[in-house]
Amino acid sequence: MTEIISTTILLILIMDPLGNLPVFMTILKNLNAKRRRIVVIREMIIALIFMLLFLFIGEKILNILNLKTETVSISGGVILFLIAIKMIFPSEENSGISSNEEPFLVPLAIPLVAGPSLLATLMLLSHQYLHHMSYLVGSLLIAWCFTIIILLLSGFFLKLFGSKGVNALERLMGLILIMLATQMFLDGIRTWFQN
Q1: What distance in Å separates the CA atoms of residue 96 and residue 103, rounded to the nearest whole number?
Q2: What value does the mean pLDDT take over residues 144-165?
Q3: Would you tell me how many other CB atoms lie within 10 Å of the CB of residue 87?
């Protein structure tokens, strides 16, 4: 039971629902509330599928493609860095997503929820709890449920902060994402040099 609780807390911290909230609010702010809920649920289901895939066959996929775990970390860092730059310096004509347009897969499901660090953690945990995969799946599902509940409340936070508040949060989140992306990139480089 203690292992499930500690693993669940670890996965929630890596999924970072509160940290991802400003990004979700910003990207979905032009959609109506009903559509926003549908998109959040769809993206979270996609993220869950990827998390379960990496939990069970992630290392095999990387071996087939002849990729190392640090490659996932470096590429994830680059993608997050590019997303963060757009958040800090939005262009005039494309400062947000139009009401007809909605994200699919990137960047909400991957890399924000099911990011490289989470996927790598799931692969490591699957080695650690090889004979207790049911515990690991249970922890993942609890963390996923907690995350989706927080993200479904994004409409409430949008009303609370208003559009100017969301824009300010977007730039702040962009700065934090740049730091996370740089750390992810440097971790991948360090691991690559160590091997």
Answers
A1: 11
A2: 84
A3: 24
